[in-house]
Each structure stands twice: as structure tokens, then as C-alpha cells.
Amino acid sequence: LKEHNKQLVEAAQQAGGATAIDFAIFQNHGYRGLYGGLDQKAIHQRKGLKKNQKILDHMGSTELAANLFRATQTEEKLKRDGVNSKQQANTTHFDVGRKVRQTIQELGGTMPEELPTPQVSIKQLENSVKITEKK
Fold first, then answer.
1. Sign of the alpha-carbon torsion through 57, 62, 66, 68
2. Any residues with CB less than 8 A from the CB of 64 and at least 6 apart, and which?
3. What is d(CA 12, CA 77) in angstroms, rounded to the nearest whole number?
4. How far apart are alpha carbons 135 and 118 in whole angstroms?
5. Residue 115 has pLDDT above 70, yes or no
6. Residue 25 pLDDT class (50, 70, 90 cuts)
7. Contact criterion met (CB below 8 Å) for 23 and 89
8. The whole model's pTM is what?
9. How far is Cα of residue 67 from the mean position of the Cα atoms in its chain?
10. How many structural domains does the chain have?
11. How far are the Cα atoms of 58, 62, 133 from residue 33, in angstroms, in the given order?
């Protein structure tokens, strides 16, 4: 997902979001759509994360998959629709996130904000793999 977010940044920049702040606002629109109105700060708090911990590092596979689907579909829609303004890009990201949420709901799935936060982060897993490989 982290790698795909780089492609999403490029698509957002082409759609009018040029600065880091613009992208943070854009990203928040996607989160708000997928997480029923919760922004990045609220998700961070809900997961009980420290300031230096990243949301993406503390997601299970189901939550990661929902976010990857949101990101890939937003990127495709921005390109397909020729979106070229920040406002349109933000609205598109929110709408795609909301549609992914709606699909999860229709399938009877657990809403992303209700999914458990893994006890071990991706970073911790990566570090233990590196330590194991060194042995």
C-alpha cells in the first residue's frame, strides 16, 4: 500500500494537489469516506497509536486490502475522469472511499474502524525478519 500511495500522490498532483499539505488533505478525504467520517487524526486516536506510529503500519490484512482498493480505484478514477482540480480530486477520493465502505457494508463485513489493531506492527515484523535472517 505504501508503494501504491506513491502512485496515488502522482495522480493527485496531476489533478491539482501539488504540496504535501494538499496531499494530506486529499488523503484525509479518502479516509473520511472509508472510515465513516473519521479523519487520519481520529483513526490514529481510535487505534491508540503514539504520535510517531503510522496508521498503515498498524492495519490487519482486511483493513489494508480495503485501503489498497480505495487507493487503486481513486487513482484510476482520477485518470479516467481527467480530474484537474484539488476540489474535484478531494471529492473523488471521498466518494471512492465511501463506495468501498458501502460495499463492505452490503457484504456484511466489519467496518474498517471496527477492525482490531494488530498487536505487532509491520515495522516490528520487518525488524524481526531482518534479525532472523542475520542469524
1. positive
2. 1, 56
3. 11
4. 26
5. yes
6. very high
7. no
8. 0.83
9. 4
10. 1
11. 19, 17, 40
